[in-house]
Amino acid sequence: ERSLGVSHADMQRVIKEAKTYLGTKHVMGGISHNGIDCSGLLYISFQDNGITNIPRTAEDFARYGNILINTNNLQSGDLVFFTNTYRTSKLVTHAGICIGNGEFIHTSSSKGVMISKINDPYYWRDKFLFGTRIVN
């Protein structure tokens, strides 16, 4: 298991930072309030809290922490990963941060940064791949 060495308190700050991006439009490769993509939201939310030993892509983020297969085991601060959200050969195509109560913050390609339900029967539940617990 590869660790990012983040605490529970760190992750709560990361979530708070991510929430400042709510409503920011989706821009592929973006990492600012002018436009951001799904892994960019994770990347910048960590960076702005001084956690700099982090990857830039959703696929690379998925390599850290302990894997959680069951959505019922997810807690605030866990990262969540999805597949088949767009056409590509990659397995991991989308990422977000669990904020508790079965919800996650992420960058939707159509609506920008928003909060969604992980078990949304119309979309996210079918695309859910796994979560990771990166908190020590």
Keywords:
4 helices, globular, 136 residues, 8 strands, two-stranded antiparallel ribbon, single chain
Describe the protein.
The relative contact order is 0.23. Helix 1 (8-19) packs across helix 2. This protein has helices at 8-19, 38-47, 58-61, 124-127, and strands at 31-32, 35-36, 66-68, 79-82, 94-100, 103-108, 112-117, 128-133. A hairpin with a 2-residue loop joins strand 5 (94-100) and strand 6. It has 4 helices and 8 strands, in the order H-E-E-H-H-E-E-E-E-E-H-E. A 6-stranded antiparallel beta sheet has the order 3-8-4-5-6-7. The chain has a two-stranded antiparallel ribbon with strand order 1-2. 22% of the residues lie in helices and 26% in strands. The protein has 136 residues and is of the alpha+beta class. The model has no long low-confidence stretch (mean pLDDT 94).
Can you summarize this structure?
The chain is of the alpha+beta class and 136 residues long. The chain has helices at residues 8-19, 38-47, 58-61, 124-127; strands at 31-32, 35-36, 66-68, 79-82, 94-100, 103-108, 112-117, 128-133. The mean pLDDT is 94.
